[in-house]
Design a protein that fits this description.
Elements: H1 8-19, H2 23-26, H3 50-62, E1 63-66, H4 69-81, H5 83-88, E2 91-94, H6 101-107, E3 114-118, H7 128-133, E4 141-145, H8 156-168, E5 177-179, H9 187-199, E6 204-207, H10 213-219, E7 227-230, E8 234-235, H11 247-252, E9 253-254, E10 257-258, H12 292-306, H13 313-316, H14 320-323, H15 330-333, H16 335-339, E11 342-345, H17 348-360, E12 370-373, H18 384-403, E13 409-412, E14 427-428, H19 430-440, E15 446-448, E16 450-451, E17 470-474, E18 494-499, H20 502-509, E19 518-521, H21 529-535, E20 541-545, H22 546-551, H23 553-559, E21 565-569, H24 581-584, E22 590-593, H25 601-608, E23 620-623, H26 632-637, H27 639-648, E24 653-655
Parallel strand pairs: 1-2, 2-3, 3-4, 4-5, 5-6, 6-7, 7-9, 8-10, 11-12, 12-13, 13-15, 14-16, 15-17, 17-18, 18-19, 19-20, 20-21, 21-22, 22-23, 23-24
Helix pairs in contact: 1-3, 4-6, 8-9, 17-18, 18-19, 20-21
């Protein structure tokens, strides 16, 4: 052994976590298989080096999961060529019929202890090989999955498999555990359950729900059962099935209760604290000899960390030191300011209450770092009292914004990426915005509050927002296009426009905006051509609506030359009836599409007419309405799979809304 190599035992310990399949996952009988994933195959570990190949091969073949005909054929070829591989297989999960190769697999795998079979097999599949091979193995556990999204499949291939099971079960003299998929007694269930009951060997029985206990108990009474697992938590209305009058059966049951009502939290026993020796001086007072400045500094630092939690108020009630006026007003200098670092105004009444607090304790305002206006401004009832209430709220917000001179984030309610209910968001007046820019413009890094429109405001206030990095603009005001500050928004990196007048974009186009890199345009009523002319070359990320794209396609192609990604969104009333490829030509790197499922025809033309030479740098395309199929049958019918494989021929990946890329499946030649 060379100096740089590790013993096989250590390599095995390293690789086991990556290659091991947990029993809970292996035996999962959910409608969607837990193995319906599109990540790299674990077999890639075997390609690292010869020592990994030698050690990882038994680990890889210990648990085998078959989800397609191609996988079954490939495994049968591998086992036929190397008989030793079949000796490693202990657990076998078969999620279909998969034809004649299954006979070869079962014939070459004599050590199978756990067998998972699916009865959700369509008539187009073939179970002949599986049926012939069942008599060649002798498992200790049988797991069956029956339902296909709540319905059982009745066809010839399923009947053949059930008959083969009924004939093989009596021969399986090691079988002592059965995971039953049947809830109610039926001919289908009896085909499998009856030979199991007659064999009298079961020790462990798993049932899908407590309802199946009524008939299963009668059939399995002759078996030496030690435990009956109920897989689904028992709800209140299903407790009638619990056999509380049968102590023997109750002793076998293992289940969890699930109540619709919130149950009181069980107090867990406190961990035993380490023994601490008693103080030699019982009257010792910490920092008794320290100066008031040192005492306050240490307590303030403790409170800084202790109050960085959601519930901060109880800490102010711990002792008089934290919340009683002393010579230097320790309440303001220590605990109370930390309580108002993050302020959330979730109701209109909170605005008036917080305004009163700031008026009575002005020193609190500079300590506010994050201010969130999360209340909704309902406009369905336009009576005089509502108008008065809104006016009072706007006036109070002037006070709050003038006092919070150290704010870093002032945010408002955003309903979605494209807020259809933006008119209901809580807002501030233009005067409030002006006060905010003057009082906290030197510290504010993010702003996203809706601003009520006003008559022809001046854009000169934007010069005061020297620290702003993220701006969500929600204001339809028409700006005066005079005295526009060239140095407005000097540090703005991320601009998101949800509602605006074209004059706002015109004003921005006359500013330098040297730091701007990301733009989101979610208002299809504005023409951004002038804006793209001025700032397009700076942008690395762009998100806009389809109408903006079609209106400004030439500008995007010509001036947004440094884009790394572009996101194209559409509102429900926007329809795409043409292939977007000509519009998107020359946009590099990444494109994200957001389309309703019912509008697939235009996208089918896009993918089938796709010209890769128009996208020389494109490597990934993400579609938010894409849903990858989870079974072999769905894969064969999926248009997304067909489109993904068209793109892969050009070295371009197609991803779903979560960013999961399609990986080609093994195919039968």
């Amino acid at each position: 052994m060379s100096d740089n190599s590790l013993p096989d035992e250590i390599i095995s310990e390293i690789l086991s976590p990556a290659l091991k399949v947990s029993d809970d996952v292996f035996s999962d009988t959910s409608d969607v298989s837990p193995f319906a994933k599109y990540s790299e195959s674990t077999s890639a570990y075997l390609l690292v080096c010869k020592s990994w190949l030698r050690v990882a091969t038994p680990l890889l073949y210990n648990t085998v999961v078959l989800r397609s005909k191609a996988q079954a054929k490939a495994l049968s070829v591998a086992l036929s060529g190397n008989e030793q591989l079949g000796q490693f297989i202990k657990k076998l999960r078969v999620e279909g019929g998969y034809g004649q190769p299954m006979h070869t697999i079962l014939k070459c795998s004599p050590n199978i202890s756990d067998l998972f079979l699916s009865l959700a097999i369509y008539s187009s599949d073939n179970t002949s090989g599986l049926c012939k091979g069942l008599s060649l193995i002798n498992p200790t556990r049988l797991i069956l999955r029956d339902s296909e999204r709540g319905r059982s499949l009745e066809n010839k291939v399923v009947s053949q498999l059930l008959d083969a099971l009924s004939k093989s079960i009596p021969k399986w003299d090691r079988l002592c555990s059965f995971d039953c998929p049947f809830v109610y007694q039926s001919v289908r269930a009896g085909t499998v359950v009856s030979p199991l009951a007659e064999a009298k060997r079961l020790h462990t029985l798993a049932l899908p729900s407590i309802e199946g206990l009524a008939w299963a108990d009668t059939i399995f009474k002759r078996c030496p059962l030690k435990v009956i697992h109920i897989k689904t938590p028992v709800k209140n209305w299903d407790e009638r099935y619990i056999p509380e009058t049968d102590p023997v059966l109750m002793s076998l049951l293992k289940f969890e209760r699930c109540s619709c009502r919130a149950l009181p939290k069980v107090q867990e026993p406190a961990a035993e604290l380490p023994l601490i020796a008693p103080s030699l001086n019982p009257s010792f007072i910490p920092m008794a000899g320290a100066s008031a400045e040192v005492y306050d500094a240490i307590l303030a630092r403790i409170l800084y960390f202790a109050m960085a939690v959601p519930s901060r108020l109880p800490l102010l009630l711990v002792s008089k030191t934290f919340h009683v006026r002393r010579a230097k007003n320790i309440i303001h200098r220590l605990g109370l300011p930390y309580h108002y670092v993050d302020v959330v105004l979730s109701e209109r009444v909170h605005v008036s209450k917080f305004g009163s607090i700031l008026l009575s304790n002005p020193s609190i305002g500079p300590h506010v770092r994050n201010l969130a206006l999360d209340y909704w401004d309902w406009r369905g009832k336009e009576d005089e009292s509502i108008f008065d209430e809104r006016a009072d709220t706007m006036l109070t917000m002037l006070t709050i914004l003038s006092q919070t001179t150290g704010a870093l984030r002032i945010t408002g309610e955003t309903f979605n990426d494209i807020p259809m209910s933006l008119h209901m968001a809580g807002s501030i007046s233009w005067d409030g915005f002006t006060v905010m820019t003057r009082c906290s413009g030197h510290t504010l890094r993010e702003f996203s509050v809706k601003i009520d429109s006003t008559a022809h405001p001046s854009p000169t206030v934007f010069a005061d927002l020297v620290a702003l990095r993220i701006l969500e603009w929600k204001c339809g005001a028409t700006f005066l296009l005079t005295d526009i500050p060239r140095d407005g928004f000097p540090n703005l990196e991320d601009l998101r426009i949800f509602s605006a007048h074209e004059s706002f974009l015109t004003a921005l186009s006359l500013m330098e905006l040297d730091s701007l890199r990301r733009v989101t345009l979610s208002d299809d009523r504005v023409n951004p051509d002038a804006f793209f002319d001025a700032h397009g070359p700076k942008l690395s990320e762009l998100s806009l609506l389809y109408p903006n794209l079609t209106t400004s396609k030439d500008k995007i192609i010509e001036v947004c030359s440094n884009l790394r990604s572009i996101t194209i969104k559409s509102l429900p009333y926007n329809r795409v009836d043409v292939c977007p490829a000509p519009i998107l030509a020359s946009i590099p790197t990444e494109i994200l599409y957001d389309r309703p499922k019912e509008e697939m025809a235009a996208w089918d033309r896009f993918f089938t007419e796709f010209q890769p030479e128009s996208f020389p740098n494109l490597r990934e395309m993400q579609v938010s309405c894409c849903v990858w199929p989870t079974s072999e049958r769905e894969i064969a019918k999926s248009c997304w799979v067909r489109w993904a494989e068209i793109l892969l021929k050009h070295n371009i990946s197609l991803a779903d809304k979560d960013g999961t890329k399609w990986r080609p499946r093994l195919k039968v030649k």
